[in-house]
């Protein structure tokens, strides 16, 4: 891509096609060429890679990706942008434009993800991506959200999302991206992250129960485990007194929820399920 002012280009295209960025779709377009090139560089693309891009926008990143990989699968939900992209990307024979919601559409196979997706879908998007097999994802996400993904145990950012992602992937926080690198600028700064899927680093006897325990406990993250477990136990038919006695018997009952490492939640869930199996 030639060295052009992407901000001016974006403004020109918005006027030309007569539409405005939609807040409900999280349309804050990346208009800094150096940031887009950094995204591509962090993904370490080869000519064998098939890259998924979520939210193709004006195709600025799409064009850079198409120069470096075998194929780009560009997903876009906005019909106005799709009309533009069909013309803009027509000459790029290695770009497949997928029309629709990334959380709902059927996706072809891909092995890498490079994107600056809408902030509003960050959490469901990560879990949707992790349902697929791929090597690495390089994403621009809201800075606060990105910091939650890699938060330290006990920190203010540590929570359910941290544990859930840690179970499935390694996360690297790379570069801060100032809000001025977008048009229109969002209300917050962003961060480039690199996400690498992996096999779970610890064993859980029941994944569904594990994620349910994590969810329930983090609704009361500052309380002791024994107290935070009561809602989980009551949902399984235990009355107040019996639930409290049972909660007292599990491992880590005296620790506060925020003090439990991801591996501790696995030990807790396995211990809880084993004890439940003996009385149910």
Label this structure with key terms.
single chain; 280 residues; 12 helices; 2 domains; Rossmann fold; alpha/beta; Helicase, Ruva Protein, domain 3; seven-stranded mixed sheet; 41% helix; two-stranded antiparallel ribbon
Short structural description:
This protein folds into 2 domains: 6-197, 3-Layer(aba) Sandwich (Rossmann fold), CATH 3.40.50; 207-279, rRNA adenine dimethylase, C-terminal domain (Helicase, Ruva Protein, domain 3).
Major beta sheet summary: 7 strands, mixed
List the helices and strands in order. HEHEHEHEEHEHHEEEHHHHH
Regions with little confidence, pLDDT below 50 for 5+ residues: none
Q: Can you say what the CATH homologous superfamily of the largest domain is?
A: Vaccinia Virus protein VP39
- The number of strands is 9
> What is the average of the pLDDT values?
91
Backbone CA Rg = 22 Å
Number of domains: 2
Shape: elongated
**Architecture of the largest domain in CATH?**
3-Layer(aba) Sandwich
Instruction: Supply the CATH class of the largest domain.
Output: Alpha Beta
Class computed from helices, strands and strand pairing? alpha/beta
> How far is it from the N-terminal to the C-terminal residue, by CA?
64 Å
